[in-house]
């Protein structure tokens, strides 16, 4: 122990109480100096520790506790700040996927992977939206997922997801999916064959999100993944048609683009009576996108979702990225009654899309050089959630436009009343209010009674 400055040395070791002072006036002075030093050091330490403690407390608050949750394995609920869009901006005549992935704090452009799943899993989705995940049907209901390009290992990744969360594994279909007596998984190209398109890392992450979210919400539904040859409207809409031809009564679409004047000429691809079609409203905030603005589909907006520790619903606000607005081109359907949009208004309903409250997704295709567990959101998440809830309800045959059913049973929806996705003069088109609003539509599911 150096003699030069024993009090400070002792302070550093936290042994102030053990220090003895000479019983002199000089000793009193030394004691005063020491107490002053102690106060200053305490203050400095407090200031140094305070931000660290608050950060740690935030982290603790944001992470789930270990343990079994309703038979499903635990996940990690992390508060994230940064995310990026997964797919490139669309070229002319193309659509982009509507997924956003959580990124590294130190590099907001770099996708972040996790050792353990981060984000909501099946128990949280089903708990928050009040569904048990089992469709009451003797013949499996088919949820079709329409995306672009190939995910070569999607079946493997779905199996990893199922095992992680302790939900049933979907076997490959060994007969035509529409005649399979048991729920199964099938991947086809836009012609219904197995000569798959090329791989695309961004769309592969989108595919993983869609397939895993659909299975999380409906565990005994069959899943038909239809892979378009590219992200062109020509190919994506060929895949849309193929999904219906192969027997899907629910089709989920998590892609779109800005509206364009010729879009209504494409709408017949979505006019499929008896088939419930969901489309993500977009991740760019206020502004209607296509095909979310098609009058034949259910446009799905996005929320930020809180789930309680017991997996019950904890509240929702409009997600800032959720697409919404008044279509430039689509005739207003008779069933839309909102006042400030003479044409079709987006969205119809909503579910979680905020990447910060997003889904745990397993993807073995390297995206930006990394693979494994990602945390992913965007309205690419809310669209397959709503698609799966249509599947759980089984109500796709009548009415042919599912939104009519949505409108008729508002008690089965939770009204979202706060949050905004942009500037529109403060109207309901970009601001969540009690009742219908653009970013969240009529609200989010509370059971499947509205669908
Ligand atoms: Ca509302």
Folded structure, characterized:
With 451 residues, this protein is an alpha/beta fold. It folds into 2 domains: 6-62, no CATH class; 83-445, Rossmann fold (3-Layer(aba) Sandwich). It contains 8 helices and 19 strands. The strands form 5 sheets. Strands 4, 5, 6, 7, 9, 11, 12 and 15 form an 8-stranded mixed β-sheet that branches. The chain has a 4-stranded antiparallel β-sheet with strand order 1-3-17-16. A 3-stranded antiparallel β-sheet has the order 2-8-10. Helix 5 (201-217) links the parallel strand 5 and strand 6 (222-228). The longest helix has 38 residues, at 25-62. The chain is globular, with a radius of gyration of 26 Å. Residues 1-36 and 39-74 have low confidence and may be disordered. Calcium ion binds at residues 415-417, 432-435, 437, 440, 443. Calcium ion is lined by residues 415-417, 432-435, 437, 440, 443.
Helix percentage range: 25-40%
* Distinct ligand kinds: calcium ion
Class derived from helix and strand content: alpha/beta
Compute the average pLDDT.
Answer: 85
Give the SSE order as H and E letters.
Answer: HHEEEHEHEHEHEEEEEEEEEEEHHEE
Total strands: the figure is 19
Q: Number of DSSP helices?
A: 8
Query: What is the CATH T-level topology of the largest domain?
Result: Rossmann fold
Task: Tell me the β content.
Answer: 15-25%
Fourth-level CATH superfamily of the largest domain: Peptidase S8/S53 domain
- Specify Rg, calculated over alpha carbons: 26 Å
Largest sheet: 8 strands, mixed
């Amino acid at each position: 122990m150096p003699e030069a400055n024993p009090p400070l040395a002792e302070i550093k070791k936290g042994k102030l109480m053990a220090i003895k002072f000479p019983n002199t006036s000089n000793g009193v002075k030394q004691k005063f100096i020491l107490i002053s030093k102690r106060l200053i050091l305490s203050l400095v330490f407090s200031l140094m520790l305070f931000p660290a403690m608050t950060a740690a407390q935030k982290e603790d608050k944001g992470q789930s506790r270990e343990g079994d949750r309703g038979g499903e394995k635990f996940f990690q609920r992390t508060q994230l700040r940064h995310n990026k869009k997964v797919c490139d901006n669309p070229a002319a005549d193309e659509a982009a996927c509507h997924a956003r992935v959580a990124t590294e704090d130190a590099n907001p452009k770099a996708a972040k992977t996790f050792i353990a799943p981060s984000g909501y899993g099946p128990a949280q989705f089903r708990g928050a939206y009040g569904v048990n995940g089992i469709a009451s049907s003797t013949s499996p209901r088919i949820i079709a997922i329409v995306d672009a390009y190939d995910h070569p290992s999607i079946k493997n990744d779905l199996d990893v997801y199922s095992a992680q969360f302790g939900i049933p594994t979907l076997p490959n279909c060994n007969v035509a999916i529409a005649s399979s007596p048991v729920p199964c998984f099938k991947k086809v190209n836009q012609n219904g064959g197995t000569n798959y398109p090329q791989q695309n890392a961004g769309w592969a992450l989108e595919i993983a999100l869609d397939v895993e979210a659909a299975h999380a919400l409906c565990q005994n539904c069959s899943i038909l993944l239809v892979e378009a040859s590219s992200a062109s409207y020509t190919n994506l809409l060929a895949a849309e048609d193929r999904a219906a031809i192969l027997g899907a009564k629910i089709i989920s679409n998590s892609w779109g683009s800005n509206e364009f004047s010729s879009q209504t000429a494409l709408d017949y691809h979505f006019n499929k009576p008896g088939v419930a079609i969901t489309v993500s409203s977009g991740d760019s905030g206020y502004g209607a996108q296509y095909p979310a603005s098609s009058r034949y589909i259910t446009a799905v907006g996005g929320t930020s979702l809180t789930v309680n520790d017991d997996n019950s619903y904890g509240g929702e606000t409009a997600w800032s990225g959720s697409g919404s607005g008044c279509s430039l081109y689509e005739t207003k359907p008779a069933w839309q009654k909102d006042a400030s949009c003479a044409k079709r208004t987006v969205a119809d309903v909503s579910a979680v899309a905020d990447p910060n409250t997003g889904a745990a997704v397993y993807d073995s295709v390297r995206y930006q050089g990394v693979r494994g567990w990602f945390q992913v959101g965007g309205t690419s998440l809310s669209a397959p959630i709503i698609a799966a809830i249509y599947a759980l309800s089984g109500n796709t045959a009548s009415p042919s436009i599912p939104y009519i059913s949505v409108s008729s049973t508002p008690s089965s929806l939770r009204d979202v009343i706060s949050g905004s996705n942009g500037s529109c003069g403060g109207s309901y088109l970009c601001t969540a209010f009690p009742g219908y609003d653009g970013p969240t539509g009529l609200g989010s599911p509370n059971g499947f009674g509205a669908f």
